[in-house]
Structure formats: C-alpha cells, structure tokens
Amino acid sequence: MMKVSNWPKPARNRAENGAVPAALTSAGEDEMATEPPVKAEAKHLSFSYGSFRALKDINIRILQNRVTALIGPSGCGKSTFLRCFNRMHDLYPNSSYEGQITLYPQNINIIGPKVDPIEVRMRVGMVFQKPNPFPKSIYENVAYGLRLRGVRNRKLLDQKVEEALKSAAIWDEAKDRLHQSASKLSGGQQQRLCIARALATDPEILAFDEPTSALDPMATSRIEELVSALRERVTIIIVTHNMQQAARVSDFTAFMYLGELIEFGVTDKMFTNPSNKLTEEYITGRFG
Amino acid sequence: MAADHDLRALIARRKAADVIFGALGALSIAIGLLTLGALLFDLIRTGWPRLSWEFFTSFPSRRAGQAGILSAWVGSTLIMIVTMCTALPLGVAAGIYLEEYAPKNWFTAIIEVNIANLAGVPSIIWGLMALGLFVHSTLDLGTSIRTAGLTLGLLVLPIVIISTREAIRSIPQSIREASYACGATQWQTTWHHVIPYAMGGILTGSIIGLSRAIGETAPLITIGALSYIAYLPEGMSETPPFLTWRFWKFQWLGSGYTALPIQMFNWISRPDRRFHENAAAAGVILILMTLSMNAIAIFLRYRLRKRVQW
Amino acid sequence: MTTIDSSLAQPGAAKVPSAGRFAPRGRVRRMKEKVIEFFLMLAALSSVAITLGIVGVLVYESITFFRHAGLTNFLTDTQWTPLFENARYGILPLLSGTITTTLIALAVAMPLGTIAAIWLSEYAPYRVREILKPTLELLGAVPTVVYGYFALLFVTPLLQKLFLQLGVDLPGFNMLSAGLVIGIMIIPYVSSLSEDAMHAVPMHIREGSYAMGATRVQTALRVILPASFSGVTAAYILGISRAIGETMVVAVAAGMQPKVTMNPLEPAATITAYIVQVSLGDLPHGSVGYQSIFAAGLALMAMTLAFNIGGYVLRKRYREAY
User: pLDDT band at B180, cuts 50/70/90?
Assistant: First the structure.
C-alpha cells in the first residue's frame, strides 16, 4: 500500500509531462505561450457500474492552473468522469475503474487499486451541485478539512479559515457570523462556503460538479467570477450543462457523449469552429 | 321520471350510510379514549389520597396504611440505569453498522430478520431467557439489579436499533459525500457527522424504549424479583437524598431488588381493599412516568423535524 | 459587486501540513478503520446471539421436560397440573385460556381498530388526525400491570353489576374482563399500522373512485381497504401476536386455574399466567415444575413465531404495486 512519503518528487524532465497537446498549439494565444504543465492525464480510462459501461476509453490532459470544462447532454458521463478524480465512486459498491488517471508532478495513478482514496481526496477537492454545508457553524465547516489533517493550533485554524473565506469571496458576509449555523445562509452563500471549505486545505485540483445549476443568476455569476479567479491558485475542472457558462469561464472544453470523449480543445475554437460534427450539432442545439 | 327518483333515493341512502359510518368511526375512537379516561380517572380517584411524602419514603409493610414505595422506585431507577447502559451503546453501534457499513448480502439479511423477530417476542419470554442464561447458568449473575437491567436492556435493544437506523436514514447522502470529499475516513464521517445529526432521533427512540422498560413486570417476576424488600441496595442511603458516595462502588448491582410494577402487582394480589389503594397510588406514579416520557419523546420528535431542514 | 482580490487567491504564507505528513499514516489509519468496523459488526451480531440464547434456553429445558412428561401427553392431555402429586402435563387447558382471551381481545380490537383507522385516514381533517393519532397511541403507553388493575377492580365489578341484571353470576376472576381490556390495549397496534397503510394509498386511486360518484364509505371499504390489505393484515397479525403474549392483565384478572374451557365467564389460566404463577412460587432449579415453564414458553414462542412468519409471508404475497 502506497505510503504518502513514497509519493515521488516532482519530475525534472519537462518533456515527459510538460508537453502541451498538439491540438492546442495555435498562434496568437498569449496564455498558451507560457505552456502550462500537465496536472493530470487520463489514459484509456473506462468506468463501469456493475455491467453498465459508463465511460469508454477516455484520454485527456488537464493542464495546470487552467479551467477545463466538461460539457455534454444528460447521461453522457461527465459527472461520472469528474467523480473518478476524487474516487467518489469508491463509496458505492459494484464500481470498477480501468486505465489510469496520472497526477503530476507526483506521477501516480490515482485510480490505482493500491492508492488510498483518502490520500487522493486530500489532494483533489470537490464542490457539489446542490450546496451541502454541514449543519455546523460557518467556521467549523471551513475548518473541518484542516482538523482532519490534524491541525489543532487555534491561531493557525483562524488564519486558514479567514484566507479560505476570502478566496471564496464570502469573508465580508461571513466574518460577523462565523459561529452561526451555516444553514442560515442563502443558496449562493452556501455554495461559496462549500468552495471555501474545499479551498481551506490547498488542494491541487478543484472539481466543480454543476456548481450553479441550483442557484439563481446573480449567485451564478458570482460563482463564475470566482472560478475564473481561482485558476491562478488551483487547477480547475468544471462540469456544466450550460454551454454558455463553459464558454464564459473555461480555457479548455471537453465534449462528451454516451460515455466517450468526442472532442477536446481550446474553448474559443470549440465554440466557434468545432472539428467534430457531433460537437457542432450539440453546440448549435440540434440535440441535447 | 321514475328512474330519476330511484337514483335520488339511492344517493340519499348512500349518503346516510356515509354519515353513519363517519359516526361509527368517531365512536370507535371515542370508546378507546373514554376507556383510557375511565382508567385514569379510577386510578387517580383511588390512589391520589395515598400519595404523600411518607408513601415515597417508606418501605412496604404488612400494614397497608404504612406501606410505601421507597424500595420500589429506587429499584426501578437503578434498573433503568443499567438498562440504558446496556441498550444504548449496543443498539447505536448495531444501528450504525447496519446502516453505514453492512454490505447487502445474506449475512446482513439474517441479522435484520433477527432484529425484526426480537421486536415481537413476548416480554415473558425475555424473562425465561434470562432465567436460564443469566440466573441459573455458569454466568451465575443471580437475582440482582445487574440481571434485571441486562434483561430489560436486551428487551429494549430492538427498539433502540430500529430508532437509530431510522434516524441515520434521514441524513441525506450529500452530507456524507461532502465529508468524504474533505478527506474523511468512514469512521470520521460517522463520528463527526452521522452520529451527531442522528442523536435526536436516537434519543427519542431510547426514551420510548425506556418508558416501556419501566412498566415491564413479567420478565422481572420470572427472574425472581421479590416484592417484599424492606431495605435499599448497598450504597443507597435509607433517608433522603438517598444518594451516597458509596453508590459509585457499584455494589448495588449485585443486590436484591424490587421495582414499581412488581410492587403494584403484589398489592393488587392481596384481598385487602386498602392495599388496592396503595396499588392505585403506585399505578398513578407509573402512568405519570410513562405518559410523560412518551410526551417528551413526541415533543422532541416534533421539535427535531422543525429544526433540521435537510 | 465584490471584486475578487487576486493577491488573496495565492495560498497563505502559513503552511498547512500537506496530506500525510501530520495525519496518521495510511496503513495505521486503515487498520484502525477495520478494527472499528469489526466491533460494530459484533454489536449487530449480538441480535443473532440473543435469538440463539432464547431458543437455546427454551429448547434445552423443554427437552428434559418432555423426556419426563412425554410430547404426546403434552399436546393432548386435558389437565395441566405439573405441581401436583399426580402430575398431568397437558397444555390444552393453558392453550384454551390463551385462545379464548385472544379471541375476545380481537373481537374488540379488530373492528374498533379498523374502523378507527378508516375514519382517521378518510374522514378526519388533517389537524384532528394529527392530534388523535398520537393520543390513541397513548393507550399503548400504559404499563400492562395498570391495565390488569383496571380489569380486576373496575371492569369486573362493572360487568358483574351488568350481568346480575341478566341473572348471571360473574366470578371475580374471568376471561371476559381480561379479554376486553387486552382488546382495548391493542387497539393502537391495529389502528396505527392500518392507518399508515391506508394513508399510503396514493391519492390518484382515491380520485378514481370519487370520480365515479362513490361516497367516502364506499371508497374506503371497496377501494382503500383492499388496496392496503397487506398493511392491514400485518397490523392484525401484530395485534394477535401481542394478545397471545400478554401476561399481566391475565395474571391479575383472569385467575390461575387451568381448565379446558372457551367460556369467557369462567376463570382460566393462560400460558403466560402459568409462567407467572410458578415464578412467584419457590421451585428448585432443575425440578419438573421449573422445567414446565420453559415448555410452556416454548409453546408460546412457537405460536408467536408462526404468526410473525405468517404475517411476513402474507405481506410478501400481497405486496401491492401502485
């Protein structure tokens, strides 16, 4: 069983994990000029519940400090794919993974049978579709992940909680009621609290599973702003059923259909000039 | 039209039947409630005059006028402590296992069938089991408060398990997922979230179980509870406030005892009318305890439903 | 519009220990989890152990008893006198006592309970139902020894006065009072479960019936009752089980003379009352008298088990799918 101290040191050979996928090199993209390293890579990833094959042979590279969006019609497997990243499927019986998802720079297959899901979840955070704060105080919600990691020092906790709440753009609304119940917050505030909770422990990847589908437009746009700003700090993968949201917020987009990855590319290009016919039909609303 | 007239008569008859049935229904409920009322009225009317400070602080006696329930209510209280200490940890642990950990296979099915079965075992059978298993067996726990508490604890166990499971089931999966996503293990999730949030439901079920255990007579008779106990168990003082530091030596666990329902049963069995008055007084106390416990449990359930909005 | 200060998006200066450095190592953590799960499983297994304990004790003592008394004797003899010189070991007297009191109780509880359930489910307005249902359940919260008192010292004198007017002399101990009181006691068992089953019948089925012009009672009796049949049957079975196993009411009010009779106006002993009677006395451990209570208990257990299983099977066969 993999002990944490065995996780390898960052690889020095950039060519190994730093190459940008060929499909993405396009002239004139300033962001692309800095060639971000790959944060995670799925290779021949498949996933089944019992006998149902939900994901079929997915190959994709998630780049560091960028927002990658997953779009597709209902049932295409985008949430299923996302939940592979933090091993959520392990909670339910009859699920089996095939292939790999390699996390860099540690170069470890996070869906490998020898890798402890707890270790994975301490590096990959998740924000869910329906805000799910614990019925505890705001402070305790954010501090939970820290306490799990053994942090007991009150001053350190206070500091990290404040940082997280600020990063989630909810500090001003929360600072005077840190010890009141989180259930008293509005839907949008609760979702930002969940983001703070996930950020408090400095995850390497933050996964968002349709984070705004239960929120009103005002709250939605605040969350979208947040997602855009957070990319400097953490790698983001976001599943959304709303194409316009993907267009607004992400750098790269992956289109999935019936468990397969149909097309993956730079967002602007995907939405203006997709290479695959199916992608084009989905984007223009011919089905979905 | 003749057909119209017939139809109208038919409808009128049907409506009358409807009203009559409605009355019958109300009547049925009324019969039940009236009987309860008659019971309470008769009990209070007979027993109330006997309720006094002396009644609470005297031992049973051959003279009806001087008999009291001191040993009985002290015995009942001590038994209840042991009952809860047995049923609560065991029941909550079992409930947690079945809801959070157990895989869905034949092994788990057997456990679940067993629990459903135990919930329907007549109370006197529990006494027989205790007689054979605890009192006269190699365990040799004898006729003691320990045995009585253990027996009633096992009797109440299915109730605690079922309440725990229901309480845990009402916690939505999204909370668990949020906890796991933060990096918690299964036990951390259970300890930090599932148990605290289910506590209300667990407590409600336990109170109902306790109220049932207080009134149980048959199992205690079977395991040999005596009804003429003119002393208090070891460590309890015979004058108020009854609690001494020696209580914590737990020697009372091995002591002989009596309990409120046993005392009441004993008094009813005597032909002397005055003992019947004592029995009524004991009955009033028993009812007050069980009814108020049930009322507290119902109230708790109501408050819980309002406070936690999932 | 809150602007998001980019500088704050950087991780803070104070470092949180990264996963694994301060938290317990993976292997230790998983071992801890497995141990905890093991103990929780033991707690759950205790229920199986308890069942084995009950069955074991009953069977063990009964076997010795049957060796002495004979199984056929037990099942067919019409006298139950294990404590006499010429001991007779027929369970029939005790059985007749149990069955008679149970039948009387059911004659009270089934009609009253079912009609009450129908009324609560189909007639009563919401608030009334919310108040009356828990109040009715209070009937089940009263300790059984108090019901015994009620049967002996209130119901029996009342019935005696009543029957005197009919020229009948009702003895102080009789099965009628006990049966009636048990019936009242199990009304909540029947009514609560039946009402739950009826309430669970979906609205659209009711609407179908009302749309045809049916009255409430017609809908209730012809549509709702059949639709909730499995739940109502389960409620009846629960009530039967409860009545069979009732001890204190019969021990106090029905007398302790075992006699083969179905006449409610006579005193008789039930299986449960017999066990109480022996326990009140002083029987040496290991004697036939002592073992006889386990045999009686075994008979009781067999009956309640049969009903519980029957109820379960019935529910499975008639499980309605909406």
Answer: very high
